[in-house]
Amino acid sequence: MFDPSSLKYDAAGLIPAIAQDAASGEVLMMAWMNADAVARTLSTGRVTYWSRSRASFWIKGESSGHVQQLVEIRVDCDRDCLLVLVEQTGPACHTNRRSCFYTGIRDGGEVVLSEPMV
């Protein structure tokens, strides 16, 4: 059985988690997890992060309805980063965009790549 404590966490006990749409491969967002968030995600199937600003668990979509249903968690070769494959309901970004990565840098300037979802 997988043991979340086998991962390499930073000094604050956190590991970066990159959420990716399991069907399209689109990178949706990056957030942080601690060992308990990893365990909760695995046991419930609802992706749970650790909010550094609130110092509390954050179940994606709990208040917004923009749920991330877990498909699979992948561990990188150094065991210090997670790829969380999800089924995303609605936007993943708090700006109401599908992805948090909606700004590109092109020719030295910033370009908005996607508008908020309606």
Main traits of this protein?
118 residues; mainly beta; 4-stranded mixed sheet; two-stranded antiparallel sheet; 1 helix; globular
Task: Walk me through the structure.
The chain is mainly β. Helices cover 8% and strands 38% of the residues. The chain has 1 helix and 8 strands. The chain has one helix spanning 35-44, and strands spanning 15-21, 27-33, 48-51, 56-59, 68-75, 82-88, 103-106, 109-112. It has a 4-stranded mixed β-sheet, with helices on one face. It has a two-stranded antiparallel ribbon with strand order 3-4. A hairpin with a 2-residue loop joins strand 7 (103-106) and strand 8. The longest helix has 10 residues, at 35-44. The mean pLDDT is 97.
Quick summary:
With 118 residues, the chain is mainly beta. 8% of the residues lie in helices and 38% in strands.
Topology overview:
Blueprint: E1 15-21, E2 27-33, H1 35-44, E3 48-51, E4 56-59, E5 68-75, E6 82-88, E7 103-106, E8 109-112
Parallel strand pairs: 1-6
Antiparallel strand pairs: 1-2, 3-4, 5-6, 7-8
Query: Termini, distance in Å?
Result: 42 Å
Task: Report the structural category.
Answer: mainly beta
Read across the widest sheet, the strand sequence of neighbours is 2-1-6-5
> What is the radius of gyration computed over CA atoms, rounded to a whole number of angstroms?
15 Å
**Total number of beta strands:** 8
Shape field: globular
Helix tally equals: 1
The helix-strand sequence is EEHEEEEEE
Query: How much strand?
Result: 35-45%
